[in-house]
Design goal:
Layout (H helix, E strand, L loop, with lengths): L5 H9 L7 H13 L1 H18 L6 H11 L2 H12 L1 H9 L5 H17 L5 H11 L1
Helix pairs in contact: 2-3, 3-4, 4-5, 7-8
Length: about 130
């Protein structure tokens, strides 16, 4: 069995199965065979990924019940968090709109802010951000 980093394994788990080549599909199978919880996590993760890809917000309640009953503790905690803001999450699963572009811009701005933190004042941050536009 080959060794896979946790980052790579996480990427494999959230990638749609039909988009994986044969080598990566075998890696997923090896990871899932290592422990029963990993198989359950993969199935729950794939269910969530497919619901999002196919915009099946109506299936979210069933997924939450499955995650709460049979999932590893991390999925139970995730399901609890989703239930706290259920309306917003269901909208994400049902809507054709995405705020991905906005989130990318905010992430970039935060990165620039971290880079100059403690080294410069607001004027330099402003110049760095405006020069990127």
């Amino acid at each position: 069995m080959c060794r896979t980093s946790s980052t790579h394994a996480s990427w494999l788990f959230v990638r749609q199965a039909e988009k994986l080549d044969e080598k990566r599909h075998q890696s997923v199978e090896q990871i899932c065979q290592a422990h029963l919880d990993l198989e359950t996590a993969y199935q729950l993760g794939q269910g969530l990924v497919m619901m999002l890809a196919e915009r099946r917000g109506a299936d979210l309640v069933a997924w939450l019940i499955q995650a709460e009953q049979s999932g590893p503790p991390e999925f139970k905690k995730m399901a609890k968090g989703i239930r706290l803001d259920y309306a917003a999450v269901k909208t994400v699963f049902s809507s054709e709109w995405s705020n991905g572009q906005v989130e990318a811009q905010v992430n970039c701005l935060k990165l620039q802010k971290r880079i100059v933190f403690g080294r410069a004042n607001f004027d330099l941050l402003r110049l760095r951000v405006l020069c990127r536009v």
